[in-house]
Specification:
The chain is built from seven helices and no strands. It has about 100 residues and is an all-alpha fold. The radius of gyration is 19 Å and the shape is globular.
Length: about 100
């Protein structure tokens, strides 16, 4: 009887932990690498679809987009991605996935 009880509690704990990890936001470093791997047109479309990232670039006007185009593969996007909410990070991951599939 005790074995079953422990097994049941262990299963419940594993299930609870699994659910907690499944709902976690994507890793910023991984999102940065995937974003930098996109071609320019797809990269820009993804950035324009995330309002906070778009605002980060557009605060510098056309010079901002020119700078981003020249450096987007090496620029540290992680700090900008870190500022996104978990929902925005999930949306960014979804957009990157769609852009990769469209290659």
């Amino acid at each position: 009887m005790r074995f079953r009880k422990r097994l049941l509690f262990g299963f419940a704990a594993a299930l609870w932990l699994g659910i907690g990890f499944a709902s976690a936001a994507p890793d910023s470093k991984q999102l940065e690498a995937e974003l930098q791997a996109l071609p320019w047109k797809q990269f820009r479309a993804v950035i324009e679809s995330v309002p906070n990232l778009k605002a980060d670039v557009e605060q510098y006007g056309s010079a901002g987009w020119a700078y981003v185009k020249a450096t987007y593969k090496t620029y540290g996007w992680k700090k900008n991605i870190d500022r996104l909410s978990p929902e925005q990070k999930s949306r960014l991951a979804e957009l990157i996935g769609k852009a990769k599939a469209a290659k």
